[in-house]
Amino acid sequence: MLDRSRIGHEFESFSAEVEKGRLRFFAKSIGETDPVYWDEAAARSAGYRNIPAPPTFPFSLDMDGPELLPVIDFLKMDVSRILHGAQEFEYPGMIYAGDTITVKSKLKDIFDKKSGALEFVVMENSYTNQNNEVVAKSTCTLVYRNA
Predict the structure, then answer these.
(1) How many structural domains does the chain have?
(2) pTM (2 decimals)?
(3) What is the CATH number of the domain that holds 24?
(4) Which of 30, 78, 94, 103 is 20 to 30 A away from residue 58, measured at CA?
């Protein structure tokens, strides 16, 4: 069983730069066809201050951290027994090209199902821009197989 006393732990935050090329590449990789995600003139014409980040982009910022999913080592999880269960996003603001985003991660919960055969690890991330505005939040649920 995973150590539930670790619930509430906050991991070291880090910052990432949001570059236009990165946004264009991400938009292309998810099949986004709206030109506001790669053409600055189209973005401004649509009322954006710059090229906006496409939906789900904040997850790619997580990969800029010193360690992808630091909770794995923190809880001493065997990576071969982990499944990605769910990913949710909330957007109280916008992420734009040129922003510097600070990512903060917290171990929000651990619970089990099937008499402990499956444990669920819930991580919560917040994404804050250079103006100290929370622009996105995400919740990632990992499934850990004990059986």
Answers:
(1) 1
(2) 0.93
(3) 3.10.129.10
(4) 78
